[in-house]
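User: I'm putting together notes for a lab meeting next week and I want to include a structural view of one of the chains we've been expressing. I don't have a solved structure, so I'd like a prediction I can at least talk through. The sequence is below, exactly as it appears in our construct file.
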Amino acid sequence: MTCRPAAILAALLLAVTVVPRTAAAEDESPFAGIDTSDLLPAGEAEAEQWLSWRHGRAGQSFDAIAGQTEYEYGLTSDLQLGGYLKYAWSRVRPHAPAPSPAVTGADFSGVAAEVVYRIWDADSDPLGVAIYFEPTIGPDTRELEWKLLLHKSLLDERLVLAANLVLENEWEHSRGQWDAHTEFNILAGAAYRFAPHWAGGLEFASQREFDGALPWQTSSAAANSYFAGPTLHYATEDFFVTLGVQAQLPWAQNLSGTPGETVGGYAHEEERYRVRMRIGIEL
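Assistant: Thanks for the context. Below is the predicted structure for the 283-residue chain, given as structure tokens.
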């Protein structure tokens, strides 16, 4: 059965129309893909559901949906712990004069843990600063993700500025060996609370790929790609939902010189469009 991108997007938008309870939330990020240094208060817990849809690649019909179910707990005022379940579905069909069969598959991606430690509090210090660490173990993958979280609230906390520096190390087991891959990403965004419960913003991402496990072994840069798009956020005291849409910008750089790494200004291995939805419920 053909996957219809418009139908998937409509389903995501429909989910955002859920009407939650009233009152204001203050500890969640107003962004779809950027974390802030705001953490859960000590002793409080939250459940989050992530759903990401990636669509389109150069030379192929591509759709992938990744899900993530999270539980987060504030151990202290400056330390937050969490655990995730990750799963995914994808469908790939190459474009060719004689079309190749579509490859469709669903899998359980793995389990992950989260540790976030806040160094500076955005409310009492000049800048909110936190360190984030997330290891993941899957059937054929191992991942280590490190983040430096930065954020500042201005205009009586109506305007939120945030940035994440992200290093992702991934090992994939295939044909009897482990292949290493690394990404260094810079995420930045601004969000403005324009009405009670509502915020709108813009997010930008720079993704640089490496072959190898930087910094543990020799790595070579492969490609650099860029994404940008709007975010819409709705929050109450115990519920929030965020929807973000991004498009790949035609600025991709072929850093390895390998033919086909970039096509028409776009990174060959990266999607052309991405949609992410987050729903959080205070427990």
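A couple of points you could mention at the meeting. The longest strand covers residues 177-195. Helices lie at 5-15.

User: Perfect, that's what I needed.
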